[in-house]
Amino acid sequence: MPDVTPTPASSAATPPDTLTTPSTAPSTAPPPPSGDAPQKTTYARLFTLPGARAFTLGNLIARFPQGMFSISAVIMISGTRGSYALAGAVTATGLVANAVVGPWTARLVDRYGQARVAVPATVISACGSLALLLCVHFGAPNWTLFAAYLASAATPNTGGMSRARWAHLLKGDADALHTANSFEQAADELCYMLGPVVAAFLCGSLFPEAGTLVSVVLMVTGVLIFAAQRATEPPPHARTEATKTPLRARGMPPLLIAFLAMGAIFGSLEVVTVAFADAQGHKVWAGGILALQAAGSCAAGLVYGATKPSGAADRRHPLCVAAMSVLMTLPLLAAALTGSLVALGGALLIAGMATAPTMVTGMTLVQQRTPAGQLNEGMTLAVTGLLGGIACGSATGGAAVEHWGPTAAYAVPVTAAATALLLSLYGYARRPGHPLP
Fold it and tell me: Residues annotated as region Disordered (predicted)?
């Protein structure tokens, strides 16, 4: 892969209602330090950028409900309808719909600007979640739950939009962008670690619909704050025949398929861990045990972002996936050799430490391989791959538990990790700038 990194926008902050391309305006990135020694990029330095704190705050508020919506819907529907099957089917429908609609929403964001698309898309999504709440509360027929929740597919990829802003602000500063991407990954892990806990607490201590209601309020509030920060918003780009989709970019297809395999790791690991805890008679501990994996990933992501990466991202990616593949054997060994939830929790904590570096490096490759002006769509395609992989991994992990038992079923995430490694190696061979075999 070449060293030149395509960026989603010019360095000039352009109003979203004006379609312009690159400019000669000065970069908004921090000025280089005087002297010969390069200044180390730190998280504190990132937030010295004008507007960075404001859009990050809004994005974190908007992103936090991502870890709340599914568990809130499951608790709300199962608590009032008495059916986990119905609750799972409704949430799965929303997940599949979001995977289908998400890239189209991101394409509109790239073309018309974040604020002009994200705000109405969020309103539509919020209306869908509120409609689901009302249908559940007033005992509407089951089919209305599916119809209402379909509107949640309009939820914009707030994490992708935040990464696009960093790429716009840090144009030409690869080290600073690496730190920013690491921060974003750590934020994702934090949201998915704390979100389900907060949702379960709200639904259990207040009323079944509380988790969904609070999620909607947080999402709308966060997106409004985020969208109001127009100075840091990347300018929109008109589409041409030459830029129909990032899927045509060299090196993108194998990378996105690798994201699919990584999603299968997470989906299968969640189902198998819940089944293992249930078999030990401690199903209530499953959430806390899984949170250890997210905690390990969050901590590793912050450390990874504070260090300067060595070598090109396309070389680091297979190494990170290889580390994930090796560490993913630890939960299998802990379950098979000890049968202890404590040992399993420690294994998941260590295994999670490879997740954030792998995701950060993968997203960096997505940024580099996505054509200019299509970054939101490119990153949303990666998220779509993850969601599809999670769905496939969940189904495969559940089937493995039924046929092999929860201990042996830990072979599923190990197999998914090995598949991701093979795909990442293939992607390295097909990287841009490398002669075709």
Answer: 1-40
Q: Is residue 64 within 8 Å of 200, Cβ to Cβ?
A: no
Rg of the chain on CA atoms, in Å: 21
b/e map 216-231, b = 16+ CB within 10 Å: bebbbebbbbbbebee
Is there a single domain that holds both residue 147 and residue 123? yes
37 domain-assigned? no
- Range in 111-115, 210-214, 284-288, 347-351 with the lowest mean pLDDT: 284-288
> What is the DSSP secondary-structure string of 166-205?
HHHHTTT-HHHHHHHHHHHHHHHHHHHHHHHHHHHHHHHH
Query: Which residue from 346, 354, 300 is spatially nearest to 323, judged by alpha carbons?
Result: 354
Our count of domains for the chain comes to 2
- Tell me the per-residue pLDDT of 125-178, one tens digit each, with 9 for 90 and over: 999 999 999 998 898 898 999 998 888 888 888 888 888 888 888 887 888 888
Residue 31, classified by CB atoms within 10 Å of its CB into exposed (0-12), middle (13-18) or buried (19+), is exposed
Domain of residue 403, residue span: 240-437
Where a domain ends, among 205, 221, 236? 236
Reported pTM: 0.72
Same domain for 315 and 378, yes or no, is: yes
Q: Residue 297 in contact with residue 189, Cβ under 8 Å?
A: yes
Same domain, 284 and 210: no
